[in-house]
Amino acid sequence: MLRKNWYTSNRIAFALVFFFYTNSFPQTHRTATATAQVTVTDPMSSSSDIVSALLKHGLSEQQAYQNLAELTGTIGGRLSGSPQAAKAVKWGEALMKKLGFQNVRLQHVMVPHWVRGKVEKAWIVGRKGRKNIPLAMCALGGSIATPKKGITAEVIEVHSLAEAKALGSEAKGKIIFFNRPMDPTLISTFAAYGRAVDQRGGGASAAASVGGVGALIRSMTLVVDDVPHTGVMYYQDSIPKVPTAALSTVAANRLSEELKRNPHLRVHFALDCKTLPDVQSANVIGELAGTEFPNEVVVMGGHLDSWDKGKGAHDDGAGVTQSIEALRLIKELGLKPKRTIRVVLFMNEENGSRGGEGYAAQLPSKEKAVAAIESDAGGFDPRTFGVSADSSVFQKIASWASLLEPTDICSMRRGGGGEDISYLKDKGAALIGLVPSNQRYFDFHHSDKDVLANVNSRELELGAIAMASLAYFISEEGL
Ligand SMILES: [Zn+2]
Fold first, then answer.
1. Of 120, 157, 332, 349, which one is the catalytic site residue?
2. What CA–CA distance (Å, rounded) separates 65 from 70?
């Protein structure tokens, strides 16, 4: 059980006293101090006191949001390989040092370097003297450019990769338009995303496999507006490369309507994006070393890179600043974890995962990866943790759910994790993903709307507090 080892822990009592003397809510002092004293005499209440202390401290200071404001405000979008990503690495390192984390270091990895370029234009070619109809679009990450004069061709609308591949010779010389929306009837927007995103990832190669000259993809969002959403795409080596871009949902609907009226309409689009040689970048790492088992490590992390549309606020400035804030709170309370609690800001989740892969590959053999907690689902109100671990480990983690209720977490869910930490599976770590409310995530995801103004400071902080609580429980009890 989590609580028993804390019974005689003077350290915890000290930590709580330290906190309650320094917290900024004098009106809660009496109650809080009374609660703190309970930790010395009543083991059953000590862990919930830790959560209370983290909660009060976090909500009174809300530094996750302040850090997110700085990251998004002074650096902004930070695509792998870009100068902004390099700045973000320096920012993360400096912040961890300023906060007094231990063993702050960079772990170098090579990352892809795709550049969007300046030209992103698309329109439906106007019929006989009529005006062109502009279509809001943006290149998908990894796409090649169009020829300089752009591509102008007839369009075939499809709703799946299979439908595109079945077009045969009909597709030759055409632009293939993938327009299967995310399913709005699914309660999980991540499930809806998962069932639609194959069009973005594989649309270009599916189009090219039957002679298509380009692929336009309906943006991965449930909102109908005129903002295109980018994201990664992949070319199959054996198939010629054709350029590919996302249309806003308004543009996709318009194109679909116009195609019904005139199946032979032509679309023009132009891109000048390109892929440059890989560049060196880094994961940023800092920790509080374990006092009893320093080689047993609990990771908290998010990814430091983002897409270049928007400012990477929810994706994944939220996870980055929550992870840093979680460790800051543990440190501020004077808690001394038995196992090492480590923050890792992973580089290159969006278009290569070289950071996640590199972290796992460079793990020292003496080190035991106990658990990894990733936040990469937006900075919204936390709901649960998704846990991938064997049954007994899951049960142990699930038994702590009631302690997390004050942070809005009220249960633990089987299955979860995150892209960056997935590489730790083979190292035996329990993989845990922070799961916030997901209804609004894809309104902003990978678009110009992923900005600070769409993040709520309290919701963001609650996620950090939940991560801090869970990481600390694991550090004390092991798994
Ligand atoms: Zn992400």
1. 349
2. 9
